[in-house]
Amino acid sequence: MADQTSSAQSLSLEGEVVEILEKPGQRRARIMIDPRAVVDISAGSITDVHLGDRVVISGSITIERVRTKQGEGPGDSR
């Protein structure tokens, strides 16, 4: 069960394009935010992105705490 006490927040991450993945009808870019944090995003709307380019990923996110019922898995039942 997720708490409904959170609200949407802005998120902006800057990173470097380290790989471009192309399949028929799909183009994705692998972005390294930090040596330990890499994200894959759809790159279909960015037609002129190349390896080594710096990009900004931005959007709105919602963070909610997930509560589990006792005995169903990790976490607490507070």
The value of Rg in angstroms is: 17 Å
* Major sheet summary line: 4 strands, antiparallel
Q: Give the total of beta strands.
A: 4
Enumerate how many helices there are, as a single number. Answer: 0
Shape: elongated
Uncertain stretches of 5 or more adjacent residues: none
Q: How much strand? A: over 45%
Class inferred from helices and paired strands = mainly beta
C-alpha termini separation: 12 Å
Question: What's the rounded overall pLDDT mean?
Answer: 84
Q: Please estimate the helix content.
A: under 10%
| H/E element order | EEEE
Brief summary of the model shown:
The chain is an all-beta fold and 78 residues long.
Structure overview:
The termini are close together. The protein is mostly beta strands and 78 residues long. The protein is built from no helices and four strands. It has a domain at 14-58. The chain has a four-stranded antiparallel sheet, with no helix packed on it. The mean pLDDT is 84.
